Amino acid sequence: MNISPSPDDAARPFGPALSLALRGRCPACGEGRMFARFLKPSAACSHCGQAWDLSRADDFPAYIVILLLGHILVPLMIEVNAAFAIPLGVQAALWPGLAILLAVAMIQPVKGAVIAFQWSRRMDGFA
Question: What is the 3-state secondary structure (H, E, C) of the chain?
């Protein structure tokens, strides 16, 4: 007896899901948008109907962004200070400003990646 797997039993590979989620696309079908607003996941994909409001990403994306920012900015600050004599006043505006810009640019893709990971592993309501 050959029973075809239901869509719920289908494999959910993380690699393709991650690639789509980083671009804000639905990891299930790749067509619909994952976010209704900047950080609010859509209730469901407009193309395939996958519910995204089941996700409980909570603070984890922010922790990842903070960790990445530290690993990007601290070496950059050390190298820039070693190579150039930038006045302290300029640095006081430069580094926090750069941190804010990078954090805003990174938070939505990182949240999408966390939700895609949960979806691919059938965690937290995505069973």
Answer: CCCCCCCCCCCCCHHHHHHHHHCCECCCCCCCECECCCCCECCECCCCCCECCCCCCCCHHHHHHHHHHHHHHHHHHHHHHHHCCCCHHHHHHHHHHHHHHHHHHHHHHHHHHHHHHHHHCCCCCCC
Per-residue pLDDT of the chain (127 residues; tens, 9 = 90+): 444 444 555 788 999 999 999 999 999 999 999 999 999 999 999 999 898 888 888 899 999 999 999 999 999 999 999 999 999 999 999 999 999 999 999 999 999 999 999 999 888 777 6
Rounded Cα gap, residues 45 and 31, in angstroms: 8
Q: Maximum CA pair distance of the chain?
A: 76
The residue written with tokens 């994952």 in the block is: 34
Cα distance between residue 127 and residue 112, in whole Å = 18
Q: E-assigned strands of the chain?
A: none
pTM: 0.84
